[in-house]
Structures are given as structure tokens and as C-alpha cells.
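A quick aside before the break. I want you to see a complete sequence-to-structure record at least once, exactly as it would be stored in a machine-readable document. Don't worry about memorizing anything.
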Amino acid sequence: MTDFVLRIFFSGLIAFVPNSNGTEMNVVLANTPHEYTLADGNTLPHHHPILLARAASCEGMCITDAQAEIAGFLFSNKTASQAQTSLNHALQGGGAWALAGSDLSLAGPVEPLAIRTGVRGRDDNGALLPVPRTAAEREDFTWVADMSEIAPATNGFKDSLTLPEAPPGCTVAARLKLRNGKLFTYSLVKIDSKALPVHFRQPSGDAPEAPYTQAVASWVAVEIHVPGDSVDIVEQSFNDSSKQRAMKLHPVNGVVEIALLNLPPYEAPDPAAPAPTPAPGQHFQVFYDLVKRPPAYTARLVPDRALTPSASEPQVDWSSLHPKDASSSELLEQLGLNPRGKGPYDLAICPMVRSTP
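That is the input. The structure line, written in C-alpha cells, reads:
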């Protein structure tokens, strides 16, 4: 039996919550109500949870009424017709869904889950390095920001996030339970063309800051070998188990690509303009709604660059850690979201987050 590769890319307001022995990873897309207010009184831009699939062909509910809205969101600098054409080109024969109260699952993969760890370098004292030195070290999953170290008093994520029942309230937009493939850091936050340690401090920028300081992941990926000639992705509503839809995706050149995103509205930056220094990641405040003991809004530490970088603070050329190779994504390239180019992460530091088992 032949097999093919399924690659899933994750980015945006997403939390990774493993089970106790690391055999499953719950991928939780945080919900951002339109009226959500940040610590400074400003309204948080609504994030759009979407699933995009690039494939040779698709069976099932691949084309939906939300296609035009998704196209306009991803290609906001184009006309409606141009945006739809660009989206169709990116998906090839695949499909796209807007997500709301969605439990997602995969049917087809059989290999166990392997979380990429143990490749991150250590200093002479055995402490983990705050920035990777090589592309191999960059793949370590521990570059995903660890909430249990940033804010230990939060006591971890709520158990209800990963239970089979619908999560309470409106804190979760969608969930995916991963049981298969190699899960790894695909890309780090880029600051001034460098991979730098990111600091965590109060939304106002005031001290004290968290002792936790390291480079952080902006994209995570999982690579899964799937037997046969197709993979099914199924969505079931949190509140109505009879409400389902599915896509059966067939590979193009031996690959199916899926992007699971939870990003705010943005306009792709001018490729010729200098890259701006990303602002503090105020969106990170939303993650504290998922924890057992959420702190006051003004005490919710968010990612920021060093106010006055130390001469001894390590930095590595970002491109050397992200070589263009076989792991490059045609889907992300066509969407204008290739981490090597310009995108949402040029505007603000908005990493994903994880908990430890």
C-alpha cells in the first residue's frame, strides 16, 4: 500500500495541551468575542479561526458559503473577484472552512504521535539555550511558549478544554485532538531579521517581567504519513453531535497540506518596504482566559522584545534557522503566509502557547 504525507501548519491564538503521557496533543483555538477588551481598554481585533486545505481533489463539503469571507480576510488588498481567484489557486482542489464551536478529527493516519524534543542545545551548566543555533535545534517543540513557566500561579489550563463535552462559555472556537505524526516548531518569531529571546512583562510594559525568556514559536507543524490515497478531516459541532461535515482530501505530488489558523485581520505588508519591529503581543492576554487561575487583566504578562537588549543577549540570524528546503509549504506560499516573507508576525509578537504534561 502506498502512502503520502499530510502536513498541518498551526498559527495564531492557539494553545497546545498534551495529555499526561504525551501520546495526544489537544490543539485549542481560543475564541475572541468581538467586544473583547484588553487591559488598556482597547478592543481586541476579532481573530478568525479557519481551516484551509490544499489537495489535488476533495470530496464532501469542500466549498461553503464562507469561501468569499475567507478569501476577503486572507487577501484584503484585492478585489472580491481577485481574492477568490487567489484563494482557489492556493487550495488547488482542496477546500476551506470557517470554524465556530468545532471539534475536528482526522481519519486515516495510524502512526503514533512523536513530539520533537531533546534536540535543543544546552550551555556548559546544562541549562537550555534561549535561542537555537541550528535549524535542527529550531524544530524542538519547547520553543512554544510555556504558560506554566511564564505564569506558574495560573495553575495550568482548565481541564474542561480537553474533555469530550463542549467547553463551557465562549472561550474555545475550535479543537483538534492530534494522535499521529511528528509535531515540531516550524518557525520562530522574527525580530529585526533575528531570532532573539522574547521577554514577558505586564501589558503596560512595566516591570517586573517573568524570569522566563527565550525565542518563541510563531508556527508549529505536524507531518503525518498516511496510508492509502486520501485522508478525511471531520468537523462536529460542540453543541450538536448530529451536525457534521467532512472533507476527503487526495494528495497532490504525494502531499496534502492543511493550515489551521486563528489570526486577526491584517493587510499583507509591502514586500519592498522595510520590515517593522513587531509590537508587544497584547493578543496573548486571551490565553489567560483558558487557565484555572486567571490573573487580573493588568497582570497578564505578554510577549515583548527587550527594552534595552543586553550586549550578552544571544541572537542568531533568523534565515539560517529557517532554510528553504523540502519542508517549504506551497499552501502558505500561495496564501502569502510563508514565514520567510512578510505577514502578521511583522506587526506584533503573537506566539502560540503550551502547557507541560
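Two observations worth writing down. The first strand starts at residue 3 and ends at 12. Residues 3-354 form one domain. We'll return to this after the break.
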